[in-house]
Amino acid sequence: MHPLDNVIWKALTTKQAHLGTTNHAAGKFLREVSLLGALAEPTAEAYESLLALLRTNERVGLFLDETPKASLPWKLVRSGPLLQMVHEHIPRVENPKERPVFLCLGREDVPQMLALTQLTKPGPFGRRTHEMGEYWGIRQNGELIAMAGERLRLPGFTEVSAVCTHPDHLGHGYATALIRMLVQRIRSRGEQPFLHVLPENTRAVELYERVGFHKRSLSQYVILERK
């Protein structure tokens, strides 16, 4: 099996084990870090093991081959297709006329990071999500107007995530610039960048293809809640 076929499990049992909790068949990130969790294999035993890691009414997001049949004590909150893309090459681009200043974001930037992600909805983002990897942003007059960072990390691979731009600052190429910078940093470590995107978000898919990402696989993003 390719490492990206069960990428959350691989991350939780390797480079990001310190950010979550696992047992022999299931795991999840700490609640403040990420909504994501995983099964070693999609078996009844694994679902029972995952259940033991959750509190009542706690939710968990899974990447699965197919939507599970929700039954007690689970509630199916959401299910939909999720496209995985991997970076294959760095396209040749002209030097931009205006190069934005990239700022490394940390704990002190969390309030603005949360505000921007809540506004733009790039995916779940918690007050400790920034601990999963490097996060970079662009500021204007002290305001965080664009950001992107690293989420899932496993040997040989790092995910680009939380790519977002404030609606008042679209059209300046900030997201493209941030992605290219992150891709270069990830590749400089000898790792392959990858990402996840909703397939219906054609504008984002086209952007990722322009900067060298290719479609790899389609799975289901499922959110379950323990009753």
Number of strands: 11
Give a short account of the largest sheet.
8 strands, mixed
Mean pLDDT: 94
- Which superfamily, in CATH terms, is the homologous superfamily of the largest domain? Gcn5-related N-acetyltransferase (GNAT)
Trace the largest sheet across and list its strands: 4-11-5-10-9-8-7-6
CATH-assigned fold name of the largest domain: Aminopeptidase
Question: CATH top level of the largest domain?
Answer: Alpha Beta
> Which ranges are low-confidence, i.e. pLDDT below 50, for 5 or more consecutive residues?
none
Secondary-structure element sequence?
Answer: HEEEHEEEHEEEHEHE
Number of domains: 2
Classify the helix fraction into a percent range.
10-25%
Structural class designation: alpha+beta
The global form is globular
Q: Helix count?
A: 5
From the N-terminal CA to the C-terminal CA, the straight-line distance is: 32 Å
Mind telling me the C-alpha Rg?
18 Å
Secondary-structure arrangement, i.e. CATH architecture of the largest domain: 3-Layer(aba) Sandwich
DSSP strand (E) fraction?
Answer: 25-35%
